Amino acid sequence: MNYGLYLSATGVLTNLYRQDVIANNLANVETVGFKRNIASFEQRLTEAQQRRDTQLTDPMLEEIGGGLFCAPTGTDMSQGELERTGNQLDIAIVGSGFFGVQDQGKIKLTRDGRFMLDNEGNLVMSNASASRVLDPDGNPVNLAGWVSTAVEIGKDGTITAHGRPIGRVGLYGVADPSKLVKDGGNLLSAPNLQKDMTAVEPNLRNGFVERSNVDPATELVTLMESQRQLEANANMIRFQDQTMGRCVNDVGKIG
Prior knowledge:
Order of helices and strands: HEHHEEEEEEEEEEEEEEHEEEH
Mean pLDDT: 87
Largest sheet: 5 strands, antiparallel
Low-confidence stretches: none
Helix content: 25-40%
Strand content: 25-35%
Structural class: alpha+beta
Shape: elongated
């Protein structure tokens, strides 16, 4: 196989992947608590480098490298802007930390603080599965007997009704946030999450939600840059294909 074709093909594939990541970020500009994905790449070692045997290839090709491959997608956990909603059950996290929720029997984390009360008085997320919000001890918060208009959540997570404490929202931290993976529905999970998460002191804003940390202008600039790189690699494939065609059809006829 033409080595140049192989390298250009890896450039096309990685930039297609990069565009998919950027498109997903742009689609979630208005998603509360969304954290942008970061497409990352790594250089693939040549076959000789992987086998630690420099006799397997041409020394000149070794200097070119093995092409560009996709690395695991990262997540930017930086703080998004806070937006006032006026809803007493909406809360935004200032700084680090996550809300703990119970979703279909599993413990997960989120930065989405749009909460409401269900028919049984459970404090739940406003998502499709109505994930139940946890207190600092890891138990679901239940406010049965109270209506949402009478409930307010304080800066430290204390839930009050008419000035009387009736519960508390927990805030959790993890040792390595980079290990968290997105599970859909604005939820995050990780292997052994329940063991790794620890309760931390909350710093909340009542009546606010955290907006997505996606900057559309930055994403669009990156998208255009990726498009140019994809086109450059696609052009290189076309040029090399034409060169090979000349070799086969013209040079091969000489003599």
